[in-house]
Every structure is written in C-alpha cells, then in structure tokens.
C-alpha cells in the first residue's frame, strides 16, 4: 500500500507523488463507473430471476392440474409392473409429484435472487455511493487549500526584507501551509483506505455470488436425485403406453367392424331376428316404461340393466344426477302383455308395483323376458338364504314417530321373531307349501292364511293383492293381527276350502303339482285354485253374520273366496256390513281378514256410522289394529246422524288412547295437505268428490265448502306450515305421551256431559275434587239433540283449549283471539 500512498511524501508534495495520486484517483473514478454498470445489470438479473421463478411456479401449478386430471381419468387403468412405494402410482400421480419437485427448485431460485441482493448488490452499492464519493470530497478540499496556499506563498515571496508586514505575512503563510498539509494528509489517507476497501468489497461480492450460484446448483441436484426414480417409472409408463397406442388404431378398427357386423340385423325395429340370444342373463338396454299414472300413462325411454338377479333402471334419462331404481327379482314374475295401444310389451309384477315395459323389437322383447325369467329362477334357487336381511321398515311418518313415542314397546309392525314363526309353522299343514308341497315354506299369503314356497309365492303375487297378499316370514315386517290370521287358518283348513271338489284320480285338465313340477304347471294350478276357484265347494248360503260374530275365520274365507261382495249388507235391520258386525263383536282377527279382502272403511250403517265410529265404541280394540286401519286413510271425522264423529264418541267413552291416536292422524293428514310436503291430492279435496260428500246434509256441505275456501291460497296464510307450529297448534290440548293432559281431556269432557268417566280417569277426578259419584253413561244424551252442531263446536273448543293458562304457550302465530277453530275443525269434519 505504501507504493501508492506514502503519507511521508505529503509534505514534500513532489510531482511523482502527485502523479501517483492522480493515477489512483482516475482508477477509482473508473471503478465507480464500472460498478454502476455492474449494479445495473445485477439488478436486472435479480428481477429476471424472480420473474423466471414465478413463471416456473405458474407452470408447475398447471402441470399439477394436468397430473390431477390424469390421475382421475375416467378410464383409469392400473399398471402394476413396478415394485416399491410408488408401484401403484398412476402416470398422473407421477406428473403431480414432478410438478411439486419443480416448485422446490423455484423456491431455491428465489432465495438465490435474494442472496444476490445481500451479497452483491448491497455492498457494491454502498461502496459506490459512500466510500468513493467521500474520497472525491477530500480531494477537492486538498486542491482548494493548495491553491490558496500557493497564492499567498507567491505573494509573500515577492516582498522585500524590510517590508513592514513581513512577520505577519509569514505567519499567514505558515497557517495556510499547515492547512494544506493537513488536507493533503487527510486525502492521501482516505485514498489509501478506499483503495483497500474497494478491493475487499469487490472480491467479497464476487465470492458471494459464486457461492449462491453453487448453492442453487446443489439444490437443483438434490431435487433431481429425488425425482430420478419417478422419472424411471414415468419412462416405463411411456414405454407401455407407446406400445398400446401403436396398436390402438388397429384394435379399434377391428372391434368396430365386428360390432357393425353383429348388429346389422338390429336396426330395423320390424325385423324379428331370432338368432342366438339364448341364455342371456346379464342384459341391459333401453326399454320404454309406462308411468304409473293410471289415467294418462306416459311412456319414457329408460335404461334397464339386469345383473346379479336384480333389475336396475335409471330414473332420469340423460342427466348427470340420474339415480337408479333397483327391482329385486326374487319377488317378481314376468309375462308378455297384449296392449291395445302398444306392441311388444311385457310386465314385471313385483310386490310393490307392476312395471309395464315395451321393447324396441320382437327379438329384444324375447331376450328380455327370457333373461328376466332366467334371473328369477336363479334368484329363487340360489338366493333364498343369502337374503336373510329383512326389508327396511317403511319410512315412518311424523305420526308414526309420535305413535312410537306414545306407545313405547308397542311396535305397530315388526319382523317376526323365532317364536312367532314357530307358532305359524306349527299350524296344521304349514310344514309344506300349500300348493306344491315343498317342505318348509317361508312365504305367507295373508289374505288366504296359508304358507307357500318362494316359487309359488311369486305366482301368488301375480294374482294381485286382491286375491293373495304375500309376505315373507323372514324378510317382511308384519302387523300383529296378521299373525293371528295365519294361526287361525293354516294350510290344512284352507286346503279343505279350496280343494274340496278336486279329485286326483280323475284324468283332469288340472293336476296338483309337486315340489319338482315345472313352473308352468304350478302356475296353472294356482290360477285354477285361487283365481278361477275351480275346486271350491259352492257357497250354500250359510249365515255369514253368525260366522263373523263367532270369529269363524274359515267360513268367512269360504264366503269371501266364493266371490261374494265383502261390502254387502249382512244385517238388514241395522244395514251393517260384515266388517261392522265383526267390529261390534270385537272379532279382531275377522276384522283384519275382511280388511285384507278390501272391506270398505267408508260404508256406513243405518245411523251413518262408519267402521271408525264402531271402533270408537269398542273397549277391547287393539291399538296396533287401530293404527293399521287408520293407515288405510279412512274418513276420520264423518258425522253420523247425530252429528257425532268417531273422535267425539271416543271422547265420550273416555278412550284416551283412541283419542290421542286419532288426533295424531288428523294432524298428520293436515300436515300432508300442507303444500310444502308436495302431495298432489289433499285428502280433503278427494273426499269432496266422493260419495261421502253426497251423504252429507246440506248444512254440512256448506260448512265444508267454507272450510275449503279457507284452505285456498288466500286463506292459507294462517295455515300452520311448519310442523313444529302445527304440533303445538293441534296437540296443545292433548299432550303426546303425557298422561296428565289426556286425563285432563277426559275430565273436561265428563264434566261437560255431566257424567263421570270410566274408572281409568277416576283418580284424576278425585284429585281435582270433582264428584266421581255420578256414573253411568247415557247414550241417548247426545242423540237427537237439535243443537248438536253448536254443542259440537263448543265441545271442540273444550277439547282443544283445555287449559286457558296454556294459551300463551301456543304457537306465536296463533293469537288468543284468532279464529283458528273452524280451520282446525274442518279437515276433521269433511
Ligand atoms: Zn310351492
């Protein structure tokens, strides 16, 4: 360093010294110039690197997306030619992985750009801006003080020795010289300092640059090492794909031609091509399906598919959210159908509904029928035991839920337990199928009271539910009364009715089939036996009324099977049907049987009392039977000639359970009518058109019509739309599962009528201090009362608003003075 700047020489200030200083100065100026260019380009590199990084990242994102698509491709094929962790990866997963690794490289590149900033740009910038500039400032000071000194010095040198101010001039020159020397020293020292600093900074910066670059390279290498196995796998993928793609074109070409040749006979819908097609089991294709609207059937094209002994079809054609409906063929029969308006039709009869289908040509229809038949046969042979899970219970209505909570432990319907099954099987004759004799039959015909094998059960089902209502001992849910029918009848007794005139010895057209007989033979037999009743003993005019009243189920069945109208009058005096007689005699098994044979719940006796009125009188009515009757949607609140509806009769008899259940169903009916629930035909409107309406007195009709007006869209705003509202609304008086409310209801009722209620509410009465001593009902009390209607409504008010204190707890929409009564009342008083 002393070569450049030697502070000793400052005082001497020789020309070589000055030249050296000048050279250094020029050098520093050039360095500054150059540094500015370096900084400028370095900044460009940094921005460029950052941009490049961003572009690469965006690119990696796109690659990831592409990989994701590839990984989820609809025709995903799995190649497993590789071992190790990634063996099961698809090409798409590899692409996604590689894209992620690319992002790792970009992260490294970004930190490289950041490092360039700190190790290169920042130090060099500070060198150029601060240190070099400072050196320049010192040089200027040095030059300035030099000029001043030289000027004074030359003036001083020209003075004579006797000059007066010589001493003062000398002092000034000395001072200036000192200043000049100081500035010179300062400048030289700074110069030396900057020269050293500059060298260090530049070498450091370049070193930093190289190190950062190397770090980036290392990271890239690490990533490449990591992805090497993926690259190899992807390479193998590519090789596999390449071979396949090369042959794809030819393969598809051949397939296309083969398929075209195969289907050449299938285009013309009129051409019946009957080659091959036998033994098809898994068939699928389009069929036209008739909608279940009885009045205006619509035929829609639906895709059906037959597999695993089930028939499945798509409900919504051509939509992504198409759902499928599964038909369990074990319980179905299939047959050709001659329709007047459509050709090539066949139908599938299942326990739930009948599907009417149309094929596009003769061959298709043949194939479908044959395939379904094969499936049914296979299902019956192989699938009996495998299907041990019972059908799911029917979806419960809100009412049903309430019922379950109200009648805990009283399941309305349930699958049979082993004991019940044993009871049914122990009935004489039930050890073998009633029709073909196959042992251990598992299916029951409820309306006939017999057990049959699965094959015969399918034929029974095809007879229709009005002839034979089929249930499985294992798969279905049973109502309690049906168990009673099954134990009261049984194969032996029913055979005695339906096979009385059958003689095996005769060379008859019909022959009783055995377990091994052909399906057609069994079908013929069952149709002849139950549908055509070929072998039944003629009805000789027995006393049906007595049989009903005595609970003689076999006679009842004989009477029904010989084609008599179940709703014909059996007691001319009271105009009662068999059903009403059975209810009056508390013959619940007969009642259930008559209901299975479609006994009418709307037919009334001479007092215009329907079955529900009669039930309301009964004290021994099993609640499950009541619920299954209510499920058949009987008119809930028709008035009899005295204006009493079933509810008021039950209230009078203090049948708390009956009242509660009936109210729940009334409430349920109204909930169903709610437009939000999507039911097309409100029961009320349907009843308005029925014979029910025709039987009403003109006055009743008027009040019904006004109720209908209230139901119109304009009157609906007060209608309880939400269930929670309507619950509180209609059930506020009769709490569900709350015995106190029910007893309160009874209490109110009995205090109104001035009679004590039955012993069931006696303790409530005594608690409330009312007089329980007055007892004994007076049925004639309400009969023939001219003010019945008014009293009726006041009674209703009491029924509904039992406790004035409860009023504010009701639904906020229902103000205390609101006229809600008629609306609540009318659906119950069609
Ligand atoms: Zn059978």
TrEMBL record:
SMART domains: ArfGap, PH. Residues 715-725 have a biased composition (Basic residues). Residues 418-536 form the Arf-GAP domain. Keywords: GTPase activation, Metal-binding, Zinc, Zinc-finger. Residues 280-377 form the PH domain. GO terms for molecular function: GTPase activator activity; zinc ion binding. Residues 698-830 are annotated as: Disordered. GO terms for cellular component: cytoplasm. InterPro entries: ACAP1/2/3-like, AH/BAR_dom_sf, Ankyrin_rpt-contain_sf, ARFGAP/RecO, ArfGAP_dom, ArfGAP_dom_sf, BAR_dom, PH-like_dom_sf. Residues 821-830 have a biased composition (Basic and acidic residues). Residues 764-774, 806-817 have a biased composition (Polar residues). PANTHER family: ADP-RIBOSYLATION FACTOR GTPASE-ACTIVATING PROTEIN EFFECTOR PROTEIN 1, CENTAURIN/ARF. This is Uncharacterized protein. It comes from Paramicrosporidium saccamoebae.
């Amino acid at each position: 360093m002393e070569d450049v700047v030697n502070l000793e020489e400052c005082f001497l200030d020789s020309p070589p010294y000055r030249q050296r200083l000048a050279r250094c100065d020029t050098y520093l100026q050039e360095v500054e110039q150059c540094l500015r260019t370096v900084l400028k380009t370095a900044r460009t590199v940094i921005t460029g690197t950052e941009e490049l990084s961003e572009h690469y990242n965006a690119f990696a994102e796109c690659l990831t997306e592409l990989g994701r698509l590839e990984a989820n491709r609809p025709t995903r094929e799995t190649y497993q030619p590789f071992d190790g962790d990634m063996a099961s990866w698809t090409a798409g997963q590899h692409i996604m992985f590689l894209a992620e690794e690319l992002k790792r490289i970009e992260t490294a590149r970004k930190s490289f750009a950041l490092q360039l900033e700190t190790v290169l740009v920042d130090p060099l910038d500070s060198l150029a801006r601060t240190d070099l500039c400072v050196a320049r400032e010192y040089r200027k000071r040095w030059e300035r003080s030099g000029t001043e000194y030289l000027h004074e010095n030359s003036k001083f040198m020209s003075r004579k020795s006797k000059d007066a101010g010589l001493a003062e001039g000398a002092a000034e020159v000395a001072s200036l010289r000192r200043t000049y020397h100081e500035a010179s020293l300062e400048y030289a020292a700074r110069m030396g300092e900057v020269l050293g600093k500059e060298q260090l900074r530049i070498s450091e910066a370049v070193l930093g640059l190289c190190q950062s670059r190397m770090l980036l390279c290392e990271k890239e290498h690490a990533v490449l090492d990591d992805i090497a196995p993926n690259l190899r796998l992807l390479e193998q993928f590519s090789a596999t794909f390449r071979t396949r793609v090369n042959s794809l074109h030819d393969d598809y070409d051949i397939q296309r031609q083969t398929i075209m040749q195969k289907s050449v006979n299938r285009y013309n819908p009129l051409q019946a091509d009957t080659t091959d097609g036998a033994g098809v089991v898994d068939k699928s294709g389009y069929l036209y399906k008739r909608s279940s609207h009885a009045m205006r059937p619509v035929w829609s094209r639906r895709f059906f598919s037959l597999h695993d002994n089930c028939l499945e079809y798509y409900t919504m054609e051509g939509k992504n959210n198409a759902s499928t409906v599964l038909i369990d063929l074990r319980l179905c029969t299939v047959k050709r159908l001659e329709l007047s308006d459509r050709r090539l039709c066949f139908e599938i009869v299942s326990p739930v509904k009948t599907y009417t289908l149309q094929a596009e040509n003769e061959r298709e229809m043949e194939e479908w029928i044959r395939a379904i038949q094969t499936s049914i046969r296979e299902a019956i042979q192989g699938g009996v035991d495998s299907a041990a899970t019972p059908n799911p219970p029917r979806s419960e209505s809100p009412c049903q839920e309430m019922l379950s909570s109200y009648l805990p432990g009283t399941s309305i319907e349930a699958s049979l337990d082993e004991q019940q099954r044993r009871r049914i099987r122990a009935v004489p004759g039930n050890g073998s199928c009633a029709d073909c004799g196959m042992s251990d039959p598992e299916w029951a015909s409820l309306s006939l009271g017999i057990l049959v094998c699965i094959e015969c059960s399918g034929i029974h089902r095809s007879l229709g539910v009005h002839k034979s209502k089929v249930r499985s001992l294992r798969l279905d849910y049973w109502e309690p009364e049906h168990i009673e029918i099954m134990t009261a009848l049984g194969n032996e007794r029913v055979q005695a009715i339906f096979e009385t005139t059958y003689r095996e010895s005769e060379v008859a057209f019909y022959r009783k089939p055995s377990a091994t007989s052909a399906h057609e033979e069994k079908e013929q037999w069952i149709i002849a036996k139950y549908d055509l009743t070929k072998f039944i003993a003629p009805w000789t005019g027995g006393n049906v009324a007595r049989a009903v009243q005595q609970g003689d189920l076999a006679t009842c069945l004989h009477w029904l099977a010989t084609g008599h109208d179940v709703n014909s009058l059996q007691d001319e005096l009271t105009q009662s049907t068999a059903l009403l007689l059975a209810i009056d005699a508390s013959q619940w098994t007969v009642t259930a049987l008559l209901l299975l044979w479609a006994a009418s719940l709307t037919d009334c006796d001479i007092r215009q009392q329907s079955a529900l009125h009669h039930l309301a009188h009964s004290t021994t009515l099993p609640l499950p039977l009541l619920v299954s009757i209510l499920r058949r949607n009987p008119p809930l609140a028709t008035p009899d000639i005295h204006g009493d509806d079933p509810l008021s009769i039950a209230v009078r008899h203090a049948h708390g359970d009956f009242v509660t259940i009936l109210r729940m169903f009334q409430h349920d009916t109204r909930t169903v009518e709610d437009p939000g629930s999507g039911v097309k035909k409100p029961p009320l409107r349907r009843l308005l058109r029925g014979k029910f309406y025709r039987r009403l007195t003109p006055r009743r009709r008027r009040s019904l019509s006004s109720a209908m007006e209230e139901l119109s869209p304009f009157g609906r705003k007060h209608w309880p739309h939400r269930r929670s509202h309507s619950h509180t609304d209609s059930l506020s008086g009769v709490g569900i599962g709350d015995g106190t409310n029910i007893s309160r209801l009874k209490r109110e009722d009995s205090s109104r009528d001035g009679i004590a209620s039955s012993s069931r509410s006696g303790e409530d009465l005594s608690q409330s201090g009312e007089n329980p001593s007055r007892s004994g009902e007076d049925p004639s009390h309400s009969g023939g009362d001219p003010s019945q209607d008014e009293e009726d409504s006041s009674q209703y008010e009491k029924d509904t608003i039992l406790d004035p204190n409860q009023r504010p707890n009701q639904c906020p929409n229902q103000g205390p003075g609101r006229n809600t009564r008629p609306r609540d009342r009318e659906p119950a008083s069609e």
